[in-house]
């Protein structure tokens, strides 16, 4: 069956890195079709809204979207489109792999190969129960953790471990202090872990996790955690492997999945043709894994590694090359096709 993918070209460097990514996908001749949909500033200009209903409908129809970064306008009345998409499709699992690449600026060598699985729909990010006292001196925030939400994310992490041959899941929490919310998450995680005797499970408090990640990142395989901790930890992990230019992420729900780069629309380099396309390309590789084309996903990852290993001059400046977004994509496309 031909898979059609909803493509969001996005703002800033978005269209440039999407063109590069589709160039590589086309070189592999996977029989994918694309349907362009608008979101972000482009959509605001064309349709008068940041996230048109037709965009949501197309994503729902195909179940898969590849998304470039969007600029969220600063100011009243604009809420994050990314958060809106996650809510709308109940994309509960935020999956962010971090694997060392050769010849990057990372100071952690090549021993990192881990995946953060972050709960994406509840925790501190529910946007409810926020209060600032009338005199502006006190602010409070409600967190929500549910058995259902915890169970499905922990199960996702263990299933991911089984599917990808990974051996260990680390449950990251702060149940010693946040006894209600983090406590419930940990309790449910322990129950779910019982069902996966073949996968090692350990528990780690979030602050210690941060230190351990920097001291001995190679001890981690899959990390599963709640929304706020996962947001912070996954950026830390991107830093372990060479930064935002190489960090992809997937937002996965039962009926839809959206694959994207972790970085933003980089207005400072937009239009210059020098954006590194790798993060979006690695997100496309995750997408291929998700639609049952893991061989093709691996080919993309291997081609990126080979291009970095060769110190190919086609690499973009952030990776020490003198190339452009498209020269980099062409260097990768030659390797995936060959
Ligand atoms: P950013 O990630 O766009 O840029 C941070 C720095 O990294 C900049 O110096 C940029 O030039 C560099 N950079 C980012 N991606 C790069 C790439 N592929 N190649 C080379 N260099 C790259 O973060 P910033 O500046 O905080 O946000 C800019 C806009 O992006 C904002 O409007 C923000 O709301 C939006 N944003 C959107 C996201 C999304 O749609 N998923 C995620 C994060 C931010
Ligand atoms: Mg974040």
Automatic annotation (TrEMBL):
Oxidoreductase found in the keyword field: yes
E.C. code: 1.1.1.41
Single GO molecular function: isocitrate dehydrogenase (NAD+) activity
Keywords of the record: Oxidoreductase
PROSITE patterns noted in UniProt: IDH_IMDH (PS00470)
InterPro entries: IsoCit/isopropylmalate_DH_CS, IsoPropMal-DH-like_dom
Oxidoreductase in keyword set: yes
Domain of life assignment: Bacteria
Residue stretches making up the Isopropylmalate dehydrogenase-like domain: 4-332
Family according to the record: Belongs to the isocitrate and isopropylmalate dehydrogenases family.
Protein name: Isocitrate dehydrogenase
Organismal lineage: Bacteria, Pseudomonadati, Pseudomonadota, Gammaproteobacteria, Lysobacterales
